[in-house]
Amino acid sequence: MECRTEGAPWASRKIPISPRGVYRKISHVSATIPKTMRAVVYRGVNDLRLEEVPVPRIKSSELLVRVGICGVCPTDIKKIHFGTQSPPRIYGHETAGTIVRVGSRVQGWTVGDRVGLHHHVPCLDCHFCRHQTFAQCETYKKTGITAGFEPAGGGYAEYVRVMDFCLPGVVKIPAKNTLEEGAMLEPVNTVLKGIRALSLLKGDTVWVAGAGPIGLLFIGMLSELGMRVVATDLMESRRQLARRWGAWKALDGADPNLVDLLRALTRSRGVDAAAVCVPVDAVVAQAQAALRGGGTTLLFAHTLRGKTAPVDLGTVCVDEKGLMGSYSSDFTLQKEVARWVFSRRLDVRNLITHRFPLAETAAAVALAARPSEDSLKILVEASSTQIAGGTAL
Ligand SMILES: [Zn+2]
Ligand SMILES: [Zn+2]
Questions:
Q1: Ligand 1 centroid – CA 304 distance (Å)
Q2: Ligand nearest to the CA of 140
Q3: Are the beta carbons of 5 and 33 closer than 8 angstroms?
Q4: What does DSSP say about strands 271-276 and 291-299: parallel, antiparallel, or unpaired?
Q5: Are strands 291-299 and 23-26 parallel, antiparallel or unpaired?
Q6: Cα 305 to averaged position of ligand 2 atoms, centre (Å)
Q7: Ligand at shortest distance from the CA of 155
């Protein structure tokens, strides 16, 4: 069954809205939902166009969310710049907004709830999920949030449809928090997942290569967890930021003696782990050289397939230096991530430097692809009105 998405409030009806089975009579529509909306459609390599498209129709097991904010993510930039997926699609997956329609069979959500979304949710039941490699699960690989066309996140649009298998990835934003914080849940989750994979002990020394938005999240969380963080970046402004986010040391990533410096900071033992948050192959070799025996290099930014780089395999076998990757989010960390963000133990608001209106999404993506001295996390604002919870953006 499909719910109508168009038209003025079309009759109140009784639907189950709470997991406790309480039935309340509510209006099915919070505001007039138009038939069409603005969306930024990917039409080919580096070709993003503002278009008028139908507002998605939802099924009775789905939600319709009016998008407030969507973060610009490097993986979107990759898809737009390299054309790794076929057009047309509507990208944007770091999405937060307000529920405007609840399918009649959906429980636990109500019109007006402010929510952060996850566009990938694992089945928790398959071989990959049993091995906790959720990002390899077939269900997880499906994108369950769309603004139309082949599902691709849809955050660069005014409304998104949340499919039933992505409902477990909907997180309520507390009244005291902003939509921006809701939009940061997904990237923070990916970082915490990466940190977990490193099996660190308190007091360990971790090299974070690259102090952009993701690098700073690593620095902030690692230092909060009691690690000594050595950050590197080519930009002095970002090295200063790295210190402000808790880095113990912040070094110039271009220093030719970088590996020696890193080893010297650990009395020659080598760093316990390296989080490579820049897609630079030379840094991987540096990381392997800077690690202690049994340490781990985590690849976080090498998201393009087909790239090869020489690795001294003896460092992996004899020195037991791990070389691993981490990609996307971990569903089981959702609650913990919400606590980090909403309690502001990790104040992600400090990361946001630019907001672009939806019509200027292409400019937002261009800036995120070529960051300036003063740019960090860049957001697209799909709408700045009709946001419940009293939060004006
Ligand atoms: Zn992302
Ligand atoms: Zn699975």
A1: 15
A2: 2
A3: yes
A4: parallel
A5: unpaired
A6: 23
A7: 1
Question: pLDDT tens, position by position, for the chain (393 residues)?
Answer: 333 333 333 233 333 333 333 334 334 455 689 999 999 999 999 999 999 999 999 999 999 999 999 999 988 998 999 999 999 999 999 999 999 999 999 999 999 999 999 999 999 999 999 999 999 999 999 999 999 999 999 999 999 999 999 999 999 999 999 999 999 999 999 999 999 999 999 999 999 999 999 999 999 999 999 999 999 999 999 999 999 999 999 999 999 999 999 999 999 999 999 999 999 999 999 999 999 999 999 999 998 888 888 889 999 999 999 999 999 999 999 999 999 999 999 999 999 999 999 999 999 999 999 989 899 999 999 975 433 332 233
Q: Which ligand has its closest atom nearest to the C-alpha of 191? A: 1
Q: How far is the CA of 99 from the centre of ligand 2 (A)?
A: 27
CB 203 within 8 A of CB 146: no
Instruction: For residue 148, count CB atoms less than 10 angstroms from its CB and return exposed for 0-12, middle for 13-18, buried for 19 or more.
Output: buried
Residue 175 CA, ligand 2 centroid: distance in Å: 33
CA 217 to ligand 1 center in whole angstroms: 13
Task: Report residue 221 as tokens.
Answer: 């969380």
pTM above 0.85, yes or no: yes
CA 148/CA 53 separation, integer angstroms: 8
Ligand nearest the Cα of residue 74 is 1
Nearest ligand atom owner, CA of 165: 2
Query: 136 alpha carbon to ligand 2 midpoint, in Å?
Result: 8
